Model the fold of this input.
Amino acid sequence: MKLKQKLVCILKIKVKTPSRLHFGLIDLNGELGRINGGLGVALENPGWEILGSSLDERNFSNVPTDTKEKISLIINKFDSVFKTNSKEFTFQINKILPQHKGLGSSTQFSLAIGTILAKIHQIETSVIEIANVVNRGGTSGIGVASFEAGGIILDGGHSFGPGKQTESFLPSSVSQAPPPPIIFRSYPPEEWRFVLFLPKDYQGVSGKSEVDFFQSKCPIPSQEVEKLSRLILVKILPAIMEKDIQTFGEGITEMQTQFTKFGMNNYDQGLIHELLNELRNQSEVFGSGISSFGPTVYALTDSEVKSNAIMNDISEIFSADKFEFMISSKINRTGAKIKTL
Done:
């Protein structure tokens, strides 16, 4: 009689993920044989906090039904690749990163679950390998790089064309491309802050709508890509390296106001439009925009005192019940925080 294999000891792994802001994709034209590429930043808050452990039977605590299904799917992918048996695992979610809000929730969640599985099974692997297993990073590499090591990040996109990493314009949720190379990562002054505003009753583009959006908008004219690339290369990146928050903020605002096909033109009226106009009139705000497809709005400033002042001012202008949250966050400088308990 073959005995059922059990894990020898109960291990507990806690993962606290960053979130990420995505300032924009760079090349959705493809004439040079490469597409995507993105610029973004990892933030300390908000983020997932997930506790995983090995127990006698699979159990999910504080986990909504749709999230249970996502965990099971990730487990199945992981077990298939690494030839493991993860039936006797439990997961507890202590903090949630809202999904489809422009904060990179799905990537952070998938990498957190994959990391917990690897740690409990004592498998030596990398964040990139886990991302490949759980199919993240197929369009933008900012989320994977944020989980790995934080910072302000520029990724190099994917080779494009028949037989290449990607043959069509697709979002990460359905792309099979691997995470792209990171060609720039920097850690600016610790005093820099991003203030986040998440309006209620708004939802980012996802699922079939996201796929249709890419298919209908691409390819983008090469002239737009060239202008955006120049803005990033000769204005934004040098400003980061020189710790020039004024020029950096101007640059990311230009990305949001001049290259609007992906994101900003979906919010040309209503609360988000009004909020951004107000933020751009505040002297404490150096740059602003929406992350990815939104609806999260961000404002860049250079101190905690100023970030609190911005939130107070916005609270006086807009009713607080219009927002799920307003928070100030440091830039994440470490990636996900992983502890064995």
